[in-house]
Amino acid sequence: MAVRVAVAGASGRLGGVVCEVVEALDGFELSGRLGSASRQDEFADCDILVDVTTPEVSAGLVADAVGRGQRVLVGTSGWSEDKIAGLAKQLAGGADPAARVLIVPNFSLASQFATLFAKLAAPYFQTAEIIESHHAGKIDSPSGTAVRTAELIGEAATFTPPFAEQRARGEQHGGVQIHSLRSAGVVAQQEVRFGGVGESLEIVHRTQSADSYRAGLAAALEWLASTDEPLTVGLERVLGFKL
Asked: What pLDDT, on the 0 to 100 scale, is given for residue 13?
C-alpha cells in the first residue's frame, strides 16, 4: 500500500515542488493539497503530513498532527530551539506514541555540506558572520537555514561580535550576526564569513532553482516513512552524517 502524503501549503513555492516530488516517488501517493481554507479533517487520513506553511501556522499544525499520531515533515522556517524543545516535550508526554517529526530547515544537499564546513571551521577563527539572501517574496527573516547555521557555529566556538548593539549589525544567534537580504532576481544564497589573523574564509552556497530541493525532499520522505525516531532536526541525519 502506498504511503499517503498530504501537503499543507501546497500552493506555495516549495509546496508545489513537494507535490511534484511525491507524485513521482515510488511507493507514495499525494492524498491532499491543503491550503488555508482546508478543514482539519482533511489532514487526518494521511500517513505523512508535509508542513510548508508559514511560521505563524506551523507550530499549531504540527502539534495537532502529533496529537493524532501522524508522521510530519516540517519544511517551514521559524522553528527556534525553544519551539523544538516544546515539541520534544509534547512527543515525550501526552502525544500519540506513533507520532514522528522530521524538521528540515533546508532540503538542498549542498546546503548541508556548507553548514558542516562552517561548523568545522568555526574554532579556528576570531569572527563569524552570515549574510543570507532570498527572493523578495520570502516573508520571514532571518531564514531557518541561517539560524541553524549560526546555532551550530555557536556550539563549536564562542564569538563576541563587535558593536553588536548597533541596529545595522543584524540579528544575533549563537553569538553570530545574521544579515538578511530580500531581493528580486534571487532564489537563495547564504554566505558564512570567518575572519582570522591575516586571512579570511568565505563559505558560499547558492541555490539556482527550486529543483535543488527535490533529492532532499525525496530522501526525507522515504526516511520519515520508516524511522523510529520521535523527533529529528536536520537533513544531515537522513543523509547519514552528524552536524
From this structure: 87
What's the start-to-end Cα distance of the chain, in Å?
34
pLDDT single digits (tens) 202-240: 999 999 998 999 999 999 999 999 999 999 999 999 998
Return the active site residues. 134, 138
Same domain, 153 and 199: yes
CATH number at residue 62: 3.40.50.720
Find the helix packing angle between 144-156 and 109-121, rounded to 10°.
Answer: 30
CA atoms of 22 and 220, how far apart (whole Å): 11
Q: What is the DSSP letter of 238?
A: H
pTM for the structure as a whole: 0.87
CA-CA-CA-CA torsion sign (180, 184, 190, 193):
negative
Which residue segment(s) compose the domain that 97 sits in? 3-103+211-239
DSSP H helical ranges for 68-213: 81-92, 109-121, 144-156
Q: Assess whether 159 and 130 both reside in one domain.
A: yes
Strand partners, 103: 74, 233
CATH number, residue 166: 3.30.360.10
